[in-house]
Design a protein that fits this description.
alpha/beta, Spore Coat Polysaccharide Biosynthesis Protein SpsA, Chain A, nine-stranded mixed beta sheet, four-stranded mixed beta sheet, 12 helices, 13 strands, globular
Length: 353
């Protein structure tokens, strides 16, 4: 495998059609990543962690697009078997432990910069332009906005046509404006009317200048909104914070904890330009767009973190300027020999047991 890989895109999934049209969304994601890596000549890898594959169903390596000889993206499929899944609490309620799965990818990735993201996204061309120009340095964690788009995006059209559709059909935007990260909520009107955003930003900065920066102010400035869809750090920094908390629970809020741990560890936040966004293909059980009544029943069926608990922990870390690390040394199942399939451009598939 090439030893000059700059970026590792780490994702996890399984062939279970969760959320509806999962295979379609995964194919759009993979084809888009292949296309843009080639377009921008970005040598990268995509590490698919296939968690708890379903017996009798096709593996991801057999149903997703693979690199051609002239591509720039290597695709790796790492399998976490049912036997390991069943060792975790609540394995009967959760078929996939998303953040532990991403840790599996982080520990085994080869790139200098590691992007933890999801399999139902497209990346804007502006984002790839920034990635291409970015230097591989430690000490910073990177965030970008997520734009939700309709689930009826067509798979059959070209990637360029899909990106054009995405730009023109944004349902909502999640994340902060890079110039005004101190504002608690930058959705809706703030993006549509820049003068309002400017005015509110001035007021917030005046208030902080007069009475000082509080711990709550620091937490407000951190961009945790939909951070599971794009959080990027240098490999050294992911290892420093020990990836994501390995909690045997639904993934909600665990992605935010990684941001808080990174900040408490001394890393600086950089929010990319609003055009450098991801486009998220909506689906039936997507958290942000789910019907509130359905969300009630969704919540009580799954073991998950309460946001107030997360916030209290974050305040403690920021106030004391000390990260709280809870993972064991073998986080990411680093002591396990996992089956892997590697597809490099222009080479035969390699299997590692």
């Amino acid at each position: 495998m090439k030893n000059d890989i700059k970026y590792s895109f780490v994702v996890c999934s399984r062939n279970d059609d969760h959320g509806g049209d999962m295979l379609k969304r995964m194919r759009i994601f993979t084809r888009g990543l292949l296309h843009q890596c080639k377009k921008y000549k970005l040598t990268a890898e995509c590490v698919f962690v296939e968690w708890n594959p379903i017996s009798g169903k096709e593996l991801l390596k057999d149903i997703l697009p693979l690199p051609d000889s002239d591509d720039y993206l290597t695709i790796r499929f790492i399998q976490v078997p049912l036997s390991l899944h069943q060792q975790l609490r609540h394995s009967d309620k959760l078929p996939l432990f998303q953040m532990i799965a991403k840790n599996v990818g982080i520990r085994r990735s080869l790139g200098e910069m590691i992007v933890c993201t999801n399999v139902d996204l497209l990346f804007s061309d502006y984002l790839f332009t920034e990635l291409h120009a970015l230097s591989s340095t430690s000490g910073t964690f990177y965030r970008c906005n997520r734009c939700d788009i309709p689930k009826n995006i067509q798979e059959e059209i070209t990637v360029e046509e899909q990106l054009n559709f995405s730009r023109k059909n944004i349902i909502q935007r999640l994340g902060k404006n890079k110039r005004y990260n101190e504002i608690a909520d930058t959705r809706g009107v703030f993006y549509k009317i820049p003068l309002v955003l400017e005015f509110v930003g001035i007021l917030v900065r005046m208030k902080r200048k007069l009475i000082g920066n509080t711990v709550d102010d620091e937490l407000t400035s951190l961009d945790t909104d939909a951070c599971g869809d794009f959080t990027m750090m240098h490999r050294e920094d992911w290892l420093k914070i020990q990836g994501y908390y390995e909690l045997e629970a639904y993934s909600i809020h665990i992605d935010s904890l990684a941001i808080y741990v990174a900040y408490a560890s001394g890393l600086k936040q950089r929010i990319l330009n609003w055009k450098s966004c991801t486009y998220h293909i909506s689906h039936d059980n997507g958290w942000e767009l789910m019907d509130p009544v359905k969300k009630i029943y969704f919540d009580i069926e799954k073991p998950m973190l309460d946001w107030s608990t997360v916030y209290q922990l974050a305040k403690k870390m920021i106030k004391e300027q000390k990260p709280i690390l809870i993972n064991k040394p073998n986080w990411g199942l680093n002591n396990e020999n996992l089956k892997e399939y590697i597809f490099e451009p222009g080479k035969e598939m390699r299997e590692i047991n």
